[in-house]
Amino acid sequence: MKPIQKTIPSLASNSVHLAVLLGIVGGFLDAYTFISRDGVFANAQTGNIVLFAVNLATGEWKSALVFIPPILAFIIGVLVSEIVKIPFLRELLYSYRRSILILECLVLIIVGFLPSSVPNIIVTTSLAFVSSLQISTFNKLDKWAYNSTMTTGSLRTATQAAYAAFIYHNAEAKKQFKQFFVIIISFLFGALLGTFTTTFIGNTSIWIAAGVLVIALILYHRDKGYIRKTAALTKHISNG
C-alpha cells in the first residue's frame, strides 16, 4: 500500500471565494435585523431561542412571541432546501443552488423597499427563511463542513486546526485554519458593514447585501469548480 496524490474535481459551491461572500451576507443580515427590526436575529436562532426563553421567564409573553416566527421560518427553510434536492425538482430547477441564490437576492431587494411601518415579523421571518436556505445549501468549504451565517462552529474548527497546524505541523490543518479564519473575518466584516450602513442609511442598506449576492451568483455561474488534491491508497500487484 502506497499513498499517492489524487486529484478530485470539486464544486464551485465549495470554493472559499463564494464562502467569503456568503459570510459577508450572513454577518450583514444579523446586524441589519438586530438594529432595524426589534433586536431579532435573522440567522442566529440560538440567540432567538435564548431571548424567547428570557422574555418567557420574566413574564414578557408578548415580547417572547416575537421570536417564534423567525425560528419557524428557519425550520421551513431547511425543509425546503431538502425538498428541492428531489431528483425531478433538481432537473426542473436546473441548478437548485443557483435558484436559491436568486431567491435570496430577490427577497433582500423586496425587503429594502419595505418601510419601517411594515411589521417586523414580515421582515424577520422572510430573512430567517432565506438564511436557512443559504445555510443548508452552501454548507461545505472545500471538503469541510461549515456555516456561512454564524461563527461558533467556524471558530471551534479554526481553533482545532490551528492547534494541529502549529503543534503537529500538519499542512492540511494549516490550510483549514487559514480558510476558516478568512470566513470568520468575512462574517465580522459583514456585521460591521451591516451595522454602519443600517444606522446611517436605513432599511434600504440591505440592498448592499443583495449586491454581494449578485457577485456571488456571477461567481457561481462562471466558476466551473476547481481541482483539489487528496491522499489515496494504491496497491502494487505482482504478476508473479
TrEMBL record:
Q: Does this entry carry the keyword Transmembrane?
A: yes
Any keyword Transmembrane? Answer: yes
Alphabetically sorted, this entry's keywords are: Membrane, Transmembrane, Transmembrane helix
Tell me where the transmembrane regions lie.
12-35, 64-84, 96-115, 180-198, 204-220
Put simply, this protein is called: DUF1275 domain-containing protein
Q: What is the lineage of its organism?
A: Bacteria, Bacillati, Bacillota, Bacilli, Bacillales
